[in-house]
Amino acid sequence: MPIRDKHEFKVSFLQVLDEDGRVDKQLEPDLSRDQLLELYRGMVLAREADQRMLRLQRQGRLGTFSPSTGQEAAACGPLLALGKADWLVPAFRELGALLMRGVPFNRVLRFWGGWEEGNVFPGVDRTLPIAVIVGSQIPHAAGLGYAVRHRGEKDTAVLTFFGDGATSEGDFHEGMNFAAVWKAPVVFICQNNQWAISTPLNKQTVSESIAQKGLAYGMPVLQVDGNDALAMYRAAKEALDRARAGDGPTFIEAITYRLMMHTTADDPSKYRAEGEVDQWERRDPLVRFRKYLGSKRLWNAQKEEQLRVEVKQYIDDQVKEYETPIDVKPDIIFDLVRGIAHELIEEQRAEFLHRLNDENEDADA
Amino acid sequence: MPKMTMVQAINLALHQEMSRDESVLVLGQDVGVNEGVFRVTAGLSEAFGESRVIDTPLAESGILGTSIGMALAGLRPVCEMQFSGFSYLMMGQFEGHATRFRTRTMGTYTCPLVVRMPYGGGVRALEHHSESREALYAHLPGAKVVIPSGPRNARALLVAAIRDPDAVVFMEPKRSYRAFREHVPEQEEVMPLGKAQIVQEGTDLTIVSWGAMMRMTLDAASLVASQRGASIEVIDLLSISPMDVSTIIGSVKKTGRCVIVQEAPRFVSISSEIVAQINDKALLYLEAPVKRVTGYDVVTPYFSRETPYFPSPRLIQRGIEQTLDF
After folding, report:
1. Which residue among A172, A191, A332, B123 has the highest number of C-beta atoms inside a 10 angstrom radius?
2. In angstroms, rounded to a whole number, what is the distance separating the alpha carbons of residues A296 and A79?
3. Domain A13-322, CATH homologous superfamily name and number
4. pLDDT tens-digit series, residues A84-129
């Protein structure tokens, strides 16, 4: 018996807006003027907020954070397709996604400023906190997907983000596999920004694409120009619709680039060439989208100026709120350990309060 | 109702809780059609269907990670690690998320889930199937760790664990799965988590133990009591974390002598913590050093060498005598 071909697989690539902002009319999604402007505002807000965070961090007013500049389209495009009943399961480089979800910027600042309040999103449901352990949120998305389906929420889907580094983690493979076996309504988006701190993609994997890893789990995959907000919207919309229709999970690989450092604690010049960054700066997702809006006569310099002023004002207000001291008792941490009180925790709370009192007296003396 | 084994009692708790609350579901490897490798999940798939009794892929981190997602969405998953020796693969999910969601989201999200796992030796099992690693889980802030010692408390504690608002590690001493039977009432019985049980009152010496060591400990205690007329108090810890320190301290203040019996290795263990608590709160009541009868700090030997590795009735008896005679 000759060896015969058994299965063939392919990975497709989607781009709707080219690098000069020219749209493929066949693929152009049907979005209203308001939706297009909402998407653009989301990306501008994410960029401006990111740059403000960098300044705050350098001034010592914010802790270490992971900048997302350059990746706005990958994070914001899918959010335009996400409904309120859907779940959002972020990693830590989707600032635009959180802001478009309606999470107030001051909450994001509080997270990176070292306050648990940064994970409490008033009025924003079904949105998990930033996940710091790489890839660990991926099985949560699969479990959420199972749960919403199990509870008969037919129009609900789950959207989760992670980076290229996460695809080496066991939790990525386990989460994808569980979701596929369960036909759970989950959309997995890998923001392949080419670098996991200092580890380039070719040291992370020798697969021809990250997208193909989804094929191994039997789910549809698509590689997308991650700096093309329209393509990201289109891919995510189709995947979310498929999930809601009961057709199971989808894996989207967004090809993008981290224009800044991994976090404010590292210096990318140590591990990557400037020329590479320049090349990707020319593919800036905001510039491309702005050109597209201009070509549709939806945008001009004056509107751009107005938007930037409005966004900066919002950011100023939010920074002010972030820097307003929180009036929460210091022993709150002892309230949150478990749902029931316990003698050892109460003992330590008393010790803690005594210690604070003692140290305050010392400081006053 | 006839007397039940621990396996049957745990099964009863699962049946009753799944009937009572639709949000309770069971997941793990081979828990459905095969009814669990120890038959703990017998009849559940038939009674509640595949969507509530889920045979999962073989991946411990995935099992707990997806359980966390289910819990965040309002379900109450009871997941099974087939053996505790394989549970370390889910430690990242447990430490990183299950124990933390309440604090990190300031109570917005919690993880009401149970991780069941058979643990411990004495059944001549394969490598990695005989360890007692409760201290690994108990060390984590926010974790709850429960170890029943018999059919009746296994049932009542599992019901409490399922209804608990946080993640509970429920470690089942597999040596006790079918070793003896107890009367388990048909009607609902719940024991609160975080409480120890004084199973035998006494005035001369306190013994603290849990899990499979309880039976051996009770035998040794009754032997010493009958031989020497000593009055021995025996505490079944039940809840490893949070620990019922008050009950232990109250007893030690009364007796002035204490022996701790655990199957696990000694170093940085639950017995270490009990000694430290006694040191903090009852040192001046002691008539003798606190004695620990434990496993050794060596890799758990293969089963042909396991018998002298674990505490024995004789070893426990010697520990009691030594502490009485000090």
Report:
1. A191
2. 22
3. Thiamin diphosphate (ThDP)-binding fold, Pyr/PP domains (3.40.50.970)
4. 999 999 999 999 999 999 999 999 999 999 999 999 999 999 999 9
Kindly list the residues from chain B whose CB atom is less than 8 angstroms away from the CB atom of residue A151. Answer: 73-75
Instruction: Tell me if chain A has a CB within 8 Å of the CB of B185.
Output: no
CB-CB contact of A237 with A267 (8 Å): no
Which range, of A267-276, B78-87, B270-279, averages the lowest pLDDT? Answer: A267-276
- Model confidence over A123-135: pLDDT tens digits? 999 999 999 999 9
Q: Which run of H or E residues covers position A192? A: strand A186-192
- Please report which residue ranges of B85-130 form alpha helices under DSSP H: 91-93, 101-104
The average confidence (pLDDT) of chain B is 97
- Which residues does A280 contact at the CB level (< 8 Å), separation at least 6? A70, A257, A259
Residue (of B69, B122, B119, B116) closest to B93 by Cα position: B69
d(CA A298, CA A37): 8
Q: How many CB atoms lie within 10 A of CB B103?
A: 19
Residue B10 and residue B177: Cα distance in Å, rounded? Answer: 9
- Is the pLDDT reported for residue B1 higher than 70? no
Q: Which residues of B are designated catalytic?
A: 129
**Sign of the torsion formed by the C-alpha atoms of B151, B156, B158 and B159:** positive
- Chain A partners of B110 at a C-beta cutoff of 8 Å? 339
| Among candidates A128, A143, A342 on the partner chain, residue whose Cβ is nearest the Cβ of B70 | A143
Catalytic residue positions of A?
A: 258, 262, 271
Q: Is B73 on the interface with A (CB under 8 A)?
A: yes
Residue A352 phi/psi, 5-degree rounding, is -65, -45
pLDDT in tens, B123-134: 999 999 999 999
CB contact under 8 A, B108 and A136: no
How far is it, in rounded angstroms, from Cα A27 to Cα B209? 68
Q: Contact, A238 vs A230, CB < 8 A?
A: no
Tokens in use for B234?
């025996």
**CB within 8 Å: A344 and B96:** no
- Looking at the predicted structure, is the pLDDT value of residue B186 above 80? yes
List all residues of chain A from 156 to 185 with a beta carbon under 8 Å from chain B: 170-171, 174-175, 177-178, 181
Round to whole Å and give the CA distance between B158 and B146: 9
B contacts of A133 (beta carbons < 8 Å)? 92, 96-97
Cβ distance B69 to A145 less than 8 Å, yes or no, reads yes
Closest Cα partner for B145 from B155, B156, B133?
B133
CA B203 to the chain's CA centroid: 26
For residue B198, the SS3 value is strand
Asked if the Cβ–Cβ distance from B102 to A139 is below 8 Å, we say no
How far is the C-alpha of A290 from the C-alpha of A228, rounded, in Å? 11
Give the minimum alpha-carbon distance from A271 to chain B in angstroms, rounded to a whole number.
Answer: 29
Nearest chain B residue to A179, by CA? B66
Rounded (10°) CA dihedral A128, A129, A132, A135 = 10
CB A260 within 8 A of CB A107: no
Q: How many helices (H) and strands (E) does chain A have?
A: 14, 8
Domains and CATH numbers, chain B: 6-176 (3.40.50.970), 197-325 (3.40.50.920)
Distance from B142 to chain A by nearest Cα, in Å? 5
